[in-house]
Amino acid sequence: MNLSQELTDRGFIHQFSTPTLEEIVDGGKRTIYHGIDPSADSAHVGNLVIWMLLRHLATAGHKIVFLVGGATGMIGDPKPDAERQLKHFEEIDNNVQKIKVQAEKFFNDIEIEFVNNYDWFKDLPLLDFLRDIGKHYTVNELIKKDAIATRLQSDNGLSYTEFAYPLIQGFDFLQLFQTKNCTVQVGGSDQWGNMLSGVELVRRKLQKEVMVITSPLVIDKTTGKKFGKSENNAVWLEAEKTSPYRFYQFWLNVSDENVVDYLKLFTFSSLKEIDDIKQEFELNPGSRCAQKKLAFLVTEIIHGTEKTELVSRVSGVLFGTTLVSEMTDSGIEVLLQNAPTSVVSDGQPLIDILVESKLATSKREARTFIESGAVSLNGEKIESIECLLKESDQVNNISILRRGKKELCVLVTR
Questions:
Q1: pLDDT in tens, 175-207
Q2: Distance between CA 214 and CA 229 in Å, rounded?
Q3: What is the pTM of this model?
Q4: Which of 42, 159, 166, 411 has its CA 20 to 30 A from that of 316?
Q5: Reduced to 3 states, what is the DSSP secondary structure of residue 34?
Q6: If we measure between CA atoms, which residue out of 402, 388, 314 comes closest to residue 344?
Q7: Residue-range domains of the chain with CATH
Q8: Residue 244: which residues within 8 A CB-CB, separation 6 or more?
């Protein structure tokens, strides 16, 4: 299978500026660039789609240039509903450095060159920019671009600062074409208009042809929301912003409707392997084997094998498939950070503990839960309402009290 077909089958391709995708990715090896604006101090899973695409392109032999937009980050591309809040230079520079470190870690085993567009904008005179670049754009063309057109129709209007963004991104492409021989830019479909501005600028100024490819924005089919910061559902690649455990849980909780699509986009499993997972999953959806595979593989890519195995075991404890006795000290630490806990005492009646841990609202309800067989301690069903918490029930002063399949509390003995 050629690369263009592989990328299409995986769902990476939304638009491209040439008659066929094959002429961009299947012929001679190209230098391809992608830019990210440092609007936060971490990339998120919405960005990860493009990063995965870049790895596929690099594996096929294309050279990758990764642009972190220290200059464009000072302005920001037009949002559809409101003007962006301008960030201080120090914050932007900090974000640039952190995203660069993240990307270096992600692309550590492939050839990639990092650039910052602030390096060529910082000393560029305004009059030179307007004469040499601005004259190649018309206002008529700019106001037809989706983001600009939407804002012009809103009550908020559009400042000249954001209106000029396509010119700045277009100049990036011109600069990288001239200095790095970049002939392709890849990005999200919401950047199509800005990306085409670079194609148009290179054609008008140099009479040369460059190309762009966009990937579709990843939409959760169950909610209709995209992955990203603006939807207030961002899952960050930075462990301090989204812990490896929370990151793992995000993928583990992916809906049945999304899971196969995400396996194609966010893992390096072959399409044949993914089809095998799909068939196994369809035979027994309750096993959630596809979600488990997805969660492990994506977390392993971002946080490494050791942390992934750790959070996988913690998840197993919380879902009743792994015993507390199998946990290491670091695993117990993660468990206590991510699960509801209750401090208890040896010899305390479980009926009282059920109430204190909020697994029951009263002793009467606690008795009902026990008598109906809904309560278990460390995976063992509690048969008697007279049962007490014993030292033998604990591992390193920890035990798991569960009511039903989903409600639980980690008991920590004084």
A1: 999 999 999 999 999 899 899 999 999 999 999
A2: 19
A3: 0.89
A4: 42
A5: strand
A6: 388
A7: 3-215 (3.40.50.620), 244-337 (1.10.240.10), 340-413 (3.10.290.10)
A8: 299, 302, 303, 307, 308, 310, 311
